[in-house]
Amino acid sequence: MKLLVTGGAGFIGTNFIRYWLRHYSNDAVINLDRLTYAGDLSNLTDIAETHCPKRYKFAHGDILDSTFVEDVLKTEHPDVIVNFAAESHNSRAILHPRRFFETNVMGTQVLLDAARQYGVQRFHHISTCEVYGELPLDSPHTFSESAPYRPQTPYNASKAAADHLVNAYFHSFGMPITISNCANNYGPYQHPEKLIPLFTTNAIQNLPLTLYQSSHNRREWLHVEDHCRAIAAVIERGKIGETYNVGSGIEKSIEEISDFILDTLGKPQQLKTYVPDRPGHDCRYLLDSQKITHEVGWEPRIPFEEGMRETIRWYVENKEWWQAIQQKVDDGVVQEDKWETFTRR
Ligand SMILES: NC(=O)c1ccc[n+]([C@@H]2O[C@H](COP(=O)([O-])OP(=O)(O)OC[C@H]3O[C@@H](n4cnc5c(N)ncnc54)[C@H](O)[C@@H]3O)[C@@H](O)[C@H]2O)c1
Q1: pLDDT band at 211 (very low <50, low <70, confident <90, very high)
Q2: What integer is the mean pLDDT of 127-143?
Q3: Which of ligand 1's atoms lies nearest the C-alpha of 83?
Q4: Sequence-separated (6 or more) residues with CB below 8 Å from residue 43
Q5: Residue with the nearest Cα to atom 1 of ligand 1?
Q6: Domain for residue 332, yes or no?
Q7: pLDDT tens digit string along 178-208?
Q8: Residues ≥6 apart with Cβ < 8 Å to 54
Q9: Among 43, 45, 57, 159, which residue's CB has the most CB atoms within a 10 Å radius?
């Protein structure tokens, strides 16, 4: 089988390409990526050296560029498209929402049209738990796949819109789609602007960990390797036209995450500083993941403490990787301690 993976130079895409090539030894992967600030081709240098061009190829370009996307499909004839490509950082979406709608919605539409034109056998779309909106901290409820979509941030709204679009191509055109909506991921190769890498790399450097004031807000955490295994399971055994939630049931507050990182690295509590919440900072998300367990036979395997310790160790051992990213010229960097100066117009 041949897979076209979009956004394969980003965090989850990189881990997914590694996972797929390791577990499916007859398959080939084309990585289509625009290499935004979030994409880093060096994540896959060893893969390219070992597998290029027979089992791995890179196609540099934008999912918004229909001519480029069609050319790749015409040349490569992939059986499956896995769409990871997205603008993915909530904080950046508050400051620059437009790019999120362009890439996440219009880019998905370009891919769907091309997939339709070239008869791709499966379009698997990667989405997020955040499309369902937030849960109160004391709520006994979880979000199942039939929960209404109530996105509250520009990032979440763009992902929700893309999910609707993917479903519409199933209903209107019979496009063979599946969607997975995943909880917060952690693991190696995550950009140092995201919570766990940000706190880990700051703690390593004895820099402040900037916790939003609502530091008891919780997230559900899943190791990226478990996510990759879930996507593979849905591609193999998922039912066409269906959406699958992918969660671990493990909830941790931002306060608990920062304490875990400080304890593991032997750093003082005094590194914690409290800053105003980002606008639209959701309280909590928690998925009901029974459907993927019962229908597809997937369950998370990596215990949270073990996965976190390994992840923290990875950032300790790969300083050059994240320092190189931090040194890149990037005019979108968000100052997480400056939200009080943000005006809601
Ligand atoms: N990280 C999480 O916790 C999480 C959880 C649930 C769902 N998701 C979803 O998973 C997907 C991947 O997330 P991630 O954390 O790996 O993101 P990421 O920001 O690390 O990577 C995104 C990748 O997409 C590429 N890209 C961006 N715009 C592009 C464009 N127009 N054309 C081609 N490539 C483009 C970037 O260069 C980058 O390599 C996203 O769709 C995200 O919404 C992420």
Answers
A1: very high
A2: 96
A3: 41
A4: 9, 14, 189
A5: 185
A6: no
A7: 999 999 999 999 999 999 999 999 999 999 9
A8: 28
A9: 159
Give the pLDDT band (50/70/90) at residue 280: confident
Three-state SS at 172: helix
Å from CA of 270 to ligand 1 middle: 33
Nearest to 158 by CA among 234, 206, 90, 231: 90
Is 65 a domain residue?
yes
- For ligand 1, atom 25, the nearest C-alpha belongs to 7
Please count the structural domains in the chain.
1
Rounded to whole angstroms, the Cα distance separating 275 from 122 reads: 44
At 137, list the tokens: 């901290």
Long-range pairs, 149-154, Cβ under 8 A, ≥24: 152/280, 152/282, 153/90, 153/93, 153/94, 153/280, 153/282, 154/93, 154/94, 154/97, 154/100, 154/101, 154/280
Q: How far is the CA of 123 from the centre of ligand 1 (A)?
A: 16
Tell which residue, 3, 180, 157, has the closest CA to residue 93: 157
Residue-range definition of the domain harbouring residue 48: 2-186+224-248+287-302
Confidence of residue 276 (pLDDT cuts 50, 70, 90): confident
Q: What's the 36 CA to ligand 1 centre distance in angstroms?
A: 10
User: What is residue 121's DSSP assignment?
Assistant: S
User: Is residue 13 in a domain?
Assistant: yes
- pLDDT(344) > 70: no
CA of 27 to the centre of ligand 1 (A): 23
CATH number of the domain that 234 lies in?
3.40.50.720
Ligand 1: residue of 12, 16, 72, 98 to mutate (most ligand atoms within 8 A of CB) is 12
pTM of the model: 0.97
**Closest C-alpha among 85, 76, 155, 150 to residue 115:** 76
Residues contacting ligand 1 via CB (< 6 Å):
6-7, 9-13, 33-36, 38-39, 62-64, 84-88, 103, 107, 126, 128, 159, 182, 184-185, 191
